[in-house]
Design brief:
Its cofactor is pyridoxal 5'-phosphate. Keywords: Amino-acid biosynthesis, Aromatic amino acid biosynthesis, Lyase, Pyridoxal phosphate, Tryptophan biosynthesis. The structure is a single chain. The chain has 507 residues and is α/β, with parallel strands linked by helices. Helices cover 40% and strands 14% of the residues. It has 22 helices and 15 strands. The two termini are 27 Å apart. The protein binds pyridoxal-5'-phosphate. The site of pyridoxal-5'-phosphate has 21 residues, from helix 10 and helix 16.
Length: 507
């Protein structure tokens, strides 16, 4: 399925809202957004100067202002990312190759060459439970830091599962249900993605089976209860349920697990059941596509207060919240409408962008998924169990890897102690207790704000606070009691796993 063009948007079809871009003369900050004015009028966003001031704490959109299309950045990039390859014959995969794992609607999105995909009404209706999400100006944090920078954060923790993950779980469940799939299998690292999919499956009447990385299963028992409350079945990974899990446990009985192993288990079960499909919470292009609603909303919200960011920071595990926020801004940057620095933040213990190689590798540990060109630490690299379980993935989204490779963005690493220190500062000023993953983004935002304090620059910093940490208080407890250690990547382990990356030749 290739997505309908922008012209077929239901809102545009109403006619009365489809004002030509040239009619917008009241609002220079909206006009600055490349390719946007038409959609801004579609969403009936009122004049920026009249609607909001920078002194506001919450910048909100009405339900009817919610973007009605997801954005695919690929057609706007100077070059396309290299194609995924079949794991056996190593030639580019076809849609048919993916059908045992994914429904046709999502495969079409994975491969689409359209820039915009209409969001089906049934999905918009579920999104309305928590969307549009608020954009906050961190006035108190700015004051506490004494910085002239203006810090904005897009808060995704108000979703039922507590993070950005339902933005893709809901469409993934819906497209599967449309094609008669009865069950979805998946992995979860932080517990956030498994919860999101359990919620989405319950909405559309699908069974849900989740492999939760052992370290996370032990540390967050109430994430499991949350998934069960929505009707899901949850296994610790590695598990006795799959052949790969049993092999792994036999070799290493006390294995803490990893996202790569849990993915192998979930894929193994889905591939053997004709009524089941597999769902992935990050990495794939259709997942990043669904998350662009974050950035599209943030663009509208910043326009309401007449701001454009100088720096955009986001944490990267598989890259979905980062790309979801960043890609619409990169579109504007490529169109010459703004010029933010785009910065990914990864944990020191699992730094795929900054320490990995850019090469074809498997998305899972067992080597069952297609080969994708990405920044990878090696598919059998088992990251040490840090508190940000959602960032313990050996690879990076191929799309994010490509954007990094062609210089559209930069990446840094931060250790977990600095992240939790920043999270405490943030919680004391802004009130929100962040999930361990976005503490990386908060720490990077604070670093930049303190730099601005030295230079006097009034930079506009934008970040995604992509989830709350209410199920992560054991991690906070570890930090508060002084027991948290910084975990650097183990170089010896890294070199060993890099040797196992498959050799593709000239592909
Ligand atoms: C709250 C939260 N943030 C970030 C991530 C990392 O994933 P991604 O890089 O795809 O956003 C996760 C993954 O589980 C998560 O739960």
């Amino acid at each position: 399925m290739s997505g309908p063009s922008r012209q077929s948007s239901p809102l545009l079809a109403t006619g009365s809202l489809a004002l030509p871009p040239s009619t917008c003369t009241c609002c220079p900050s909206f006009q600055k957004l490349g390719r946007r004015p038409q959609r801004i009028h579609q969403a009936r966003v009122p004049c920026a100067q009249a609607s909001a001031s920078r002194e506001q704490t919450k910048i909100l959109l009405e339900e009817h202002e919610m973007p009605r299309q997801w954005y695919n950045i690929v057609p706007d990039l100077p070059s396309a990312p290299p194609p995924p390859l079949h794991p056996e014959h190593k030639s580019p995969i076809t849609a048919e190759d993916l059908e045992p794992l994914f429904p046709k609607g999502l495969i079409a999105q994975e491969m689409t060459t359209e820039s915009y995909i209409d969001i089906p009404q049934e999905i918009l209706d579920v999104y309305k439970i928590w969307r549009p999400s608020p954009l906050f100006r961190a006035h108190r944090l700015e004051k506490a830091l004494g910085t002239p920078a203006r810090i904005y954060y897009k808060y995704e923790g108000l979703s039922p599962a507590g993070s950005h993950k339902p933005n893709t779980a809901v469409p993934q469940a819906w497209y599967n249900a449309q094609e008669g799939v009865k069950k979805l299998t998946t992995e979860t690292g932080a517990g956030q993605w498994g919860s999101a999919l359990a919620f989405a499956c319950s909405i559309f009447g699908l069974d849900c089976e989740v492999w939760q990385v052992r370290a996370s299963y032990d540390a967050k028992p109430f994430r499991k209860t949350m998934m069960q409350t929505w009707g899901a079945t949850v296994h610790p990974s590695p598990s006795e349920v799959t052949a790969f899990g049993r092999r792994t446990l036999e070799a290493t009985p006390d294995m803490p697990g990893s996202l790569g192993i849990a993915i192998s288990e979930a894929v193994e079960v889905a591939a053997q059941d004709p009524d089941a499909r597999y769902a992935l919470g990050s990495v794939l292009s259709h997942v990043l596509l669904h998350q662009t609603i974050i950035g599209e909303e943030a663009l509208l919200q910043l326009a309401k207060v007449g701001e454009t960011p100088d720096l955009l920071v986001g944490c990267t595990g598989g890259g979905s919240n980062f790309a979801g926020l960043a890609n619409p801004f990169i579109r504007e940057k490529l169109a010459g409408k703004m010029n933010p620095i785009i910065r990914a933040v990864e944990p020191k213990a699992c730094p795929s962008l900054t320490k990995g190689v850019y090469d074809y590798d498997y998305g899972d540990t067992a080597g069952m998924t297609p080969l994708v060109k990405m920044h990878t630490l090696g598919h059998d690299f088992i990251p040490d169990p840090i508190h940000a379980g959602g960032l313990r993935y050996h690879g990076m989204a191929p799309l994010v890897s490509h954007m990094y490779d062609i210089g559209l963005m930069e990446a840094i690493t931060i250790g977990q102690k600095e992240c939790f220190e920043a999270a405490l500062t943030f919680a004391k000023q802004e009130g929100i207790i962040a999930a361990p993953e976005p503490t990386h983004a908060i720490a990077a935002a604070i670093r930049e704000a303190l730099h601005c304090k030295e230079t006097g620059e009034e930079k506009v910093i934008l970040t995604a606070l992509c989830g709350h940490g209410h199920f992560d208080l054991a991690s906070y407890e570890t930090f508060l009691s002084g027991r948290m250690e910084d975990v650097d990547i183990n170089e010896e382990k890294l070199q060993k796993s890099l040797q196992n990356i498959p050799v593709i030749g000239s592909a």
